[in-house]
Amino acid sequence: MDATIVPEQLAAPHLTSGGLLILIGVLLVAVILAAFAWGRRLKARAPAPPTPEEQPRLPEGGAVGDVVENREPDELPRTDRRRTPHELKSDGNGSRRGS
In this predicted model, what pLDDT tens digit does every residue of 19-58 receive, in sequence order? Predict the structure, then answer.
């Protein structure tokens, strides 16, 4: 048995490798065109943007202003043990309105 392999025997013929590259290129272009057509179809089914008449309007009294108020933190009494969440007030924000 001959242990030497001629490099020309391992290489694919030029026609086969060139044809394979062309086939891959054609498939790639077909996939890109199909994705483009699918995207156009999805965009055509989407609702149109609202017209100027459908846009939201300001209330009759004008723009609503911000509410400005002073808030004071809820103080916790000093204890020797750690408090758990269920022992705290459950008002949600940990502060109260200031005077």
Answer: 888 999 999 999 999 999 999 999 999 999 989 999 988 8
Q: CA-CA distances (angstroms) from residue 60 to 55, 56, 63, 64?
A: 15, 12, 9, 10
| Structure-token match 């030029």, residue found | 14
Distance from C-alpha of 60 to C-alpha of 30, rounded to nearest angstrom = 56
Distance in angstroms (rounded) separating the CA atoms of residues 32 and 26 = 10
How is residue 62 annotated by DSSP?
Answer: -
Upper half-sphere CA count for residue 27 (Cβ side, 13 Å): 6
Q: pTM for this one?
A: 0.41
Report DSSP letters for 60-75, one per residue.
TT-PPPPP---EEEPP
User: Rounded distance, CA 18 to CA 94, Å?
Assistant: 72
